[in-house]
Amino acid sequence: MARRALFFAALLLLAFATSTRAQLQVGDELKMNLNGLLTGGYAGNYGDAIPSSHGLTFGGSAQLSGSYYNPNFLNFTATPYYNQSRADSSFQSLTDATGIDGTANFFTGSRFPGFASYHYDRNSTGTFGLIGTPSFTTVGNSQGFGIGWSALLPDWPTLSVSYSQGSGTGTLYGTNEESNSSTKTLNVHSTYQLAGWRLNGFYQYMNVSSTIPFFLSGEPGNDFYHSSGNDFGVNATHTLPWHGSVALGFNRSTYGDNSGSTVNELLGTSNYTTDQQTALVSFQPTIKLTLFTNEAYTDNLSGYLYQTIINGGGGVPVTAPSSGSDSFTLTSGATYTFTRNLYGMAQITYFDQSYFGSNYEGSFFLGTVGYGKRIFDTFTVTASVVESTNKFANNNLGFIANLNGFHHFGAWEVAGNFSYAQNVQTLLVTYTTSYYNYGANLHRRLGHGMQFTAAFNGNHSGFSQNAGTLNESESFSSSLALRRVAITANYNKYNGQSILTSSGIAPITVPGLPPEGLVLYNGEAYGAGIALTPIPRLTLSGNYAHATSNTLSATTPSFNKTEMFYSQLQYRLRQITVLAGYTKFSQGISASGILPSNQYSYFIGVTRSFNFF
């Protein structure tokens, strides 16, 4: 009885409480604003792997912002939330998540600005990466913080230092498979002007630890992976006569890692150090002519490929490539604008590389012609030819072509693109890549703010020397927006090879990777959504998503399926909104040996916005 009375009292507060819009001032210096959203209602959850529960529930979110003395001296923002889920909020969590995000900025606009940030999420929904479709859904906890400071004194080198660390754990929905990761990063950066040279220096320390579900790793138990390393470099730029410039750079990366499984314990370690040096010189003696020369050397080509994947944001590869390799390239060329719309480029590259126990020396020529004016008021084109020679293979001919189009057909807008490449040089000179990509877009304005849009895209790529490395994807999406109805639909399919990283599987972007960390994948996904506004202030919406995939690691195949349907009703009454929601979620991973898990939840209640001060 007491709980029920409390619930009705909260509803009366939501309905009749008034809001205050004044800013709160504490003393002479501290000023704050607080607004938020409070929710109360009745909710229930039931499913295959969870106990059934239902009852009264409360939740909310808030945003506190303010400053001390002066906003440039100290300003801050804190955003806590409690008991928020997809059914009754925009926090996009299947579970009742709770957490806080906060930031503070110090001495903004001064010569010594700084910042601090913190976040904490409990019982929140996350993802573990797949390619081309919605990723595996996880539920777990995460937290992290960051801090940084800068010194920006005139006529002195600038200095910026920042440190961040974060960690998270999650369980794949429908399984007892766990994934977790932690990251620590230190960054130092400095710039300086000296005798016409603009100098830059940086240092980065990174430490990554992760545990990966066994059905992707192929090892008994869960794979664990630890990596740490240092990356520092300097570069300098200077202007030259003839509207020219010179850029010089040096970078050193040192990384070490160890990996294994929770059953077999430590399985392997690897370490590498990579030095890379670059130089670029360019001139523009006339408005039409540009000349350029660049040179690059690395003493560990395998380590450079490994670092390329990390810098690309794909996560840290679980298996490092072998060492004992180096690369030197020297390129010279020119670009020339013949007319306003016609231009051309020619360049020749000399290379000398050693890897996989062999040395490769030779050159390749690249010629490009482009026409920027629309042909038949529709098309623009570019075309390139690549010819390479080395002591193992002569006269390897490659092509690159791009076609883009745009045209109005009455009220319809039609756009499209097509790209084709054959035997295009990669970072390793004995590997070439081939691809073709295409896309089309259709758009029509229907008047009074209504419109129709459809898009189709496809990508096909692979390394020419390696059968079975083809990666393919196709996607379609469409939307129709009318006065009171909006409809969306989408479809994706994909297949190919991927590399296992600390954040899931990611597309292969560089050749020569070891086979131990590769994962075969394929799958498709489709979905649709509708939103209705039958009368003012009333919104009805529903969304459905379905995804299936197959993955094959070194030894473990798995069929995976995720399905979700959720619907929502919102009716606004000034600052009060009546809410109702229903969610059905299902996920199964066959390699886990557990039947797919289904979960259902519903909610009905009210929410009210407040401006407390």
Q: Can you give a write-up of this model?
A:
The chain has helices at residues 2-16, 214-217, 301-311; strands spanning 24-26, 30-47, 53-68, 74-84, 97-106, 114-128, 136-151, 159-172, 178-194, 197-212, 223-240, 244-261, 265-283, 289-298, 326-337, 342-355, 358-375, 379-390, 396-409, 412-425, 432-447, 450-463, 471-481, 485-501, 504-507, 518-532, 538-552, 557-573, 576-589, 597-611. With 613 residues, it is mostly beta strands. The chain is globular and about 75 Å long. The two termini are 33 Å apart.
The total beta strand count reads 30
Query: Largest sheet, described in full?
Result: 28 strands, antiparallel, barrel
Count of helices?
3
Oligomer: single chain
End-to-end separation in angstroms reads 33 Å
Broad structural category: mainly beta
* Mean pLDDT level: 79
Q: What percentage of the residues does DSSP assign to strands (E)?
A: over 45%
Q: Using only CA atoms, what is the Rg?
A: 29 Å
Q: Helix fraction?
A: under 10%
Poorly predicted parts: 1-21, 86-92, 312-316
Topology, element by element:
Layout: H1 2-16, E1 24-26, E2 30-47, E3 53-68, E4 74-84, E5 97-106, E6 114-128, E7 136-151, E8 159-172, E9 178-194, E10 197-212, H2 214-217, E11 223-240, E12 244-261, E13 265-283, E14 289-298, H3 301-311, E15 326-337, E16 342-355, E17 358-375, E18 379-390, E19 396-409, E20 412-425, E21 432-447, E22 450-463, E23 471-481, E24 485-501, E25 504-507, E26 518-532, E27 538-552, E28 557-573, E29 576-589, E30 597-611
Antiparallel strand pairs: 1-2, 2-3, 2-30, 3-4, 4-5, 5-6, 6-7, 7-8, 8-9, 9-10, 10-11, 11-12, 12-13, 13-14, 14-15, 15-16, 16-17, 17-18, 18-19, 19-20, 20-21, 21-22, 22-23, 23-24, 24-25, 24-26, 26-27, 27-28, 28-29, 29-30
